[in-house]
Amino acid sequence: MKLVQRAASISLVALFILAPGPGAAANNHALDNDNVLMGAGAHFAWILFDAIKADLEAKTGRKTILFGQNSMLGVGCNAGIKAAKQGTKSRETFGFVCCPLSDEEIEKEQLIVYPLAKEPILILTHKDNPLDNLSADDVRAIFRGDKLNWNELGGADKPIVVVTRLHCKKRPGHWKTILPDAKAFRQERLNVKSAAAMVQRVSDFTSAIGHTGATWKFKAGDNVKILTVDGYKPTAENLRSGKYPFYRQLSAITNHNPTPDVVKLIKQAQTGAAFRKVAQQYELLPLNPLQ
Q1: Residues 129 and 53 in one domain
Q2: Rounded CA gap, 187 and 89, in Å?
Q3: Which domain holds residue 220?
Q4: I need a surface site. Which of 28, 67, 84, 175 has the fewest CB within 10 A?
Q5: pLDDT single digits (tens) 65-76
Q6: Residues 223 and 172 both lie in one domain
């Protein structure tokens, strides 16, 4: 509970900074004086930007502030869109999202999308589960509720505990590569609001199954393991070949009038050598050529 409350508090701080209000002019003045570029959005994309922050600052010669360290349902991508829309010459902001955006949403919000990478969606289970691999069909059958006990899959005689985090329900991609609609998922399941809670719940139940992005930083005490799917690990190469089926797209976003330095920062993130190192660390598939 404390973790969730802390995450919510930090997310609200980020949203407060992004939201216009009586102090907006003062905030803009402070950002101007500090020569700051500011980005906000989804945790899993934040991981990438934070890891290469020094490289981005060296490229632009500008200090960069990033919000998105904590992962809460319904906050990250929405905060990223808000940050992108509020960018001006005096308030240089951009956003980042962990889900692809529909053409309709891009048009409605007047956004430019800068694809970064495909991120594998990991299928998690408890470390004591004797199974190490599932077919893609079996993964979908479990989340759909067609398979209710691990013994139906050659595992122990234990009821399967399904844990889901069905964020950004109106957006395409992400967990929808498992099942295309929230209504398709098993009704008797545990719904969590953060990636941290996902890992905790899968750790709590020896018969659990869940999902999270590959850039999540696991801790030594997490009692989870990552399953292969159809015998394939969730790697960049297996995404490239189409052998691993579950993934989402990480992107940066701006409004239609980004400043040159914001564009320079994003282009460096898309094509720089520093990003390639981070992508290799987390098995991300870059969507732009190295420059």
Answers
A1: no
A2: 48
A3: 120-241
A4: 28
A5: 999 987 554 458
A6: yes
Residue 291 within any structural domain of the chain: no
% residues pLDDT > 90 (the chain): 76
Residue 221: which of 238, 202, 235, 234 has the closest Cα? 202
* Residue 45 CA from chain centroid, whole number: 6
DSSP characters over 22-83: TTHHHHHHHHHHHTEEEEEE-HHHHHHHHHTHHHHHHHHTSEEEEE--S--TTTHHHHHHHH
Task: Find the helix or strand (DSSP H, E) in which 190 lies.
Answer: strand 190-191
* Cα separation values, 21 from 12, 17, 137, 254, 282, Å: 15, 10, 50, 21, 38
Nearest one of 209, 174, 177 to 190, comparing CA atoms: 209
Task: Specify the pLDDT at position 31.
Answer: 45
Domain count, the chain: 2
Question: Within this chain, do residues 156 and 236 fall inside the same structural domain, yes or no?
Answer: yes
What is the Cα–Cα distance from 27 to 83, expressed in whole angstroms? Answer: 14
Q: Could you tell me the two tokens for 151?
A: 């013994």
Q: Which of 10, 26, 134 is nearest to 90 (CA)?
A: 26
Own/partner long-range contacts of 23-27 (Cβ < 8 Å, ≥24 apart): 27/91
For residues 160 and 254, what is the distance between their CA atoms, to the nearest angstrom?
42
Range in 33-37, 136-140, 238-242, 265-269 the model is least confident about: 33-37
190 forms bridges with which residues in the sheet?
163
Task: Please check whether residues 162 and 237 belong to one and the same domain.
Answer: yes
SS3 assignment, position 110: coil
Residue type, 156: A
